[in-house]
Amino acid sequence: MTVHPLQRLLAYGRDYRVRIGQAIACSILNKLFDLAPPALIGAAVDVVVRQEDSLIAQLGVRDIFSQLVVLAILTFVTWGLESLFQYAYDRLWRNLAQTFEHDLRLDAYNHLQNLEMAYFEERSTGGLMSILSDDINQLERFLDVGANDILQVSTTVVVVGATFIVLAPSVSWAAIVPIPVIVVGSIAFQRTLAPRYAEVREKVSLLNGQLANNLSGMATVKSFTAEAYEAKRIERYSNDYRQSNGRAIALSAAFVPLIRFVILVGFTGILLFGGMAAVEGTLAVGTYSLLVFLTQRLLWPLTRLGQTLDLYQRAMASVTRVMNLLDTEIAIHPGDRPLPVESVKGEIEFKDVTFAYRDRAPVVENLSFQVRAGQTIAIVGATGSGKSTLVKLLLRLYEVRSGRITLDGIDIQDLQLQDLRRAIALVSQDVFLFHGTVAENIAYGNFDANRDQIVAAATIAEAHEFVSKLPQGYDTIVGERGQKLSGGQRQRIAIARAIIKDPPILILDEATSAVDNETEAAIARSLDRIVQNRTTIAIAHRLSTIRHADRIYVMERGRLVEWGTHDELLDRPGIYANLWRVQTGVKV
To answer: What sequence ranges are listed for the domain ABC transporter (predicted)?
Structure first.
């Protein structure tokens, strides 16, 4: 059974029940005092017309001036309380909207961080950004305005409808009959509008996704002179969004004019039939005045119902997308066995491990090997042989389909995920640097690091020299993804980040494949220092960088086909020896 998004939202907001209750109470009280002035006007007309026989006179105040003074005091108090409760509900609803938005965005983001990598590979960054930003903002706009409007319209219908029935049952039908027509029309309007706004949210997600993709790949766009092509593509996505919004607007804009005709029937009915009753003496003039004013207060606010429902439907479409994200099952179990980093020895074993990406053939199949604590091993093989997949499995970015991976004899699925990842530092070929300073990016490996530790790590990584020459040294902004630095500079900062983390296990995934020979030599010198006394797994295409590894494993199509030391593998007429001959030109 599908749960309505409003029910899901209320279930999520159960921790805000007290503040929601306070905001609801203030909205209702404000509307009650807002409806009082027409009653006071009717009472004033009653005093003028009936004088000493007025309703107030029957309460004991016989003097006409005194009656008017009482009405003036009541008017002052009513307006004061109305203003007070308006301030209260406005502040409560707006603060609640901000708090709700803040908490929901954090919960959605934290949940997103716990999802497996496959989730991100199947979705665009822009689409996820749309959920975390635009969709949650839609909810905030509804809580800011729409929730209060719904409460006040409901309060008006109940209070004014009851007043009509009590004071003038013979003519109250003229004002009350339009209400069910408006309500039924509003419900039909809402149901028709809902799928249109769901489409709007989907279109804006696609647009944001393409924008994010283009901005992150701007260098490629420019290098292939694809600006016009991409502008056309953005125009197409934006036009789809505009048209889907237009279809929703066409329906929502028609609501108010149609409702006005229904309201007109009720208002003219009260003027006509109520006026005749007042002339015939069956309805007091003061009561007639009250009914005329209250008819406006009852029916005209319903014209805003279209705008309120518009906000509501936009918010519900957004709530559905946010809640669907929160409902996404976390496939990777966090583990419950602690493993303090200082106690990690670094012995790793893959036992009959098989893994396949979704809807694809196995990338790794029945793979087994062991890395002793403190040992440096290398994994080589052609592109697509499964080398980098082993890193992802060890970090539990993906779960193995069968078999097991152990760290110090413990299945990594049993270990607390945070402890497992704290024990491992990854230096990848595709270095990701955050928009910030050089120092901040190095300290990402240890947020408690001071400047001396940052400089020491950079020195070991042979990065200190070039960092010192940057305009602001360690305080230089590297740009998004580190675009202000060269590939070799980014790589050395990544190594410094791994050094400052000081992990018992180091993974080097093609750490030197995209740099020149001089930079490779500098990186190799720094790596020789940091692999000491820690378990190291090096994945490489360039065999010269791993020739001194304690053991080299050769992969082909997800399986280990050769293993041994560099010299042992060269003595065999196998894949490794052939690769070495191709790369060096040396006959084996």
So the answer is: 348-582
Architecture per CATH, 337-423+504-588 = 3-Layer(aba) Sandwich (3.40)
Q: Please, what's the largest Cα pairwise distance for the chain?
A: 123
Which H/E stretch holds residue 95?
A: helix 64-113
- State the Cα–Cα distance between residues 293 and 295, nearest whole angstrom: 5
The pLDDT value given to residue 58: 61
Q: Give the dihedral sign, CA 228/234/239/242.
A: negative
196 with 251: CB under 8 angstroms? yes
Give the lowest-confidence range in 74-78, 94-98, 255-259, 349-353.
Answer: 255-259
Contact 237, 212 (CB under 8 A): no
Say how far apart CA 198 and CA 244 lie, in whole Å. 10
Is the pLDDT reported for residue 161 higher than 90? no
* Cβ atoms 30, 87 nearer than 8 A: no
- 181's tokens: 């027509």
Region 432-502: CATH code: 3.40.50.300
Q: What are the sequence ranges of the domains in the chain?
A: 5-327, 337-423+504-588, 432-502
Query: Could you give the CA distance from residue 570 to residue 565 in angstroms, rounded to a whole number?
Result: 9
C-alpha–C-alpha distance, residues 450 and 467, integer Å: 17
